[in-house]
């Protein structure tokens, strides 16, 4: 299927939500997607979002509001390593953070959700990161291969129910991958979407029970690209072909001039996020 192909058949919002909830229950998550063990929410090791801890995070976030991304990352490493990690889809913001971490703390574990549907160009970027920084981004895989998943579901799930497909091939994997950490870096920028506009520099990620640090929250797209060009940071060549935001190949199309930078994601569906950041 080409990146520009339009999905043909959709489930209703209710059907889609019901299927996602059933899948969450089946894997031992509550309705907010938080792991349950014996009916209790867990994090390993537990990091309790007590009112005092949340207030502390808010204070730290406000104190870091005008700091550089590098200073924010340095703070995150000092405070949370070796329980500090990063998930990346190799977008320009993620590449910027990888570049900064390679200077500040190259031992920081970084992983990618390898859904089996990523662009070849994205996979190649992982190799370029290894060559440039000596950093191996670890792939985290869903339990089922693409073939097994599509066979079990009678075809590609992204065509009919991208929410469930993202849940099965990204969120489910991410929940597993998030266990055992205290904090992670996020590459979101506040000006990317309404959903992201209120992201704090440091906040509690309720869904994954981790401290979420967004060093680029205050940066603009232009600042990100200026640094990429200045430092020669590797980036996905699809960005030069009209793809400002890149996810899985079947759910990403190029955008036209004037379109929102995330308009090419899940085009044809009322979906703008994979569920990782909202
Ligand atoms: S982006 Fe598309 S192919 Fe990738 S996990 Fe989500 S729905 Fe599936």
TrEMBL record:
Single GO molecular function: 4 iron, 4 sulfur cluster binding
Keyword line: Cytoplasm, Iron, Iron-sulfur, Metal-binding, Oxidoreductase
CC cofactor: [4Fe-4S] cluster
Catalytic reaction(s) noted: [thioredoxin]-disulfide + sulfite + AMP + 2 H(+) = adenosine 5'-phosphosulfate + [thioredoxin]-dithiol
Active site: 274
Binding note for cofactor: Binds 1 [4Fe-4S] cluster per subunit.
CDD domains: PAPS_reductase
Signal sequence residues: none
Known EC number: 1.8.4.10
Localization in the cell: Cytoplasm
Primary location recorded for the protein, binned into one broad class: cytoplasm
Pathways per UniProt: Sulfur metabolism; hydrogen sulfide biosynthesis; sulfite from sulfate
Keyword Metal-binding: yes
Entries under Pfam families matching the protein: PAPS_reduct
EC class: oxidoreductase
Residues noted as binding [4Fe-4S] cluster in the record, renumbered to the chain: 165-166, 248, 251
InterPro entries attached to this UniProt entry: PAPS/APS_Rdtase, PAPS_reduct_dom, Rossmann-like_a/b/a_fold
Superkingdom as given in the UniProt entry: Bacteria
Membership in a protein family: Belongs to the PAPS reductase family. CysH subfamily.
Role played: Catalyzes the formation of sulfite from adenosine 5'-phosphosulfate (APS) using thioredoxin as an electron donor.
NCBIfam families on file: cysH, PRK02090.1
Protein name: Adenosine 5'-phosphosulfate reductase
Gene that specifies this protein: cysH
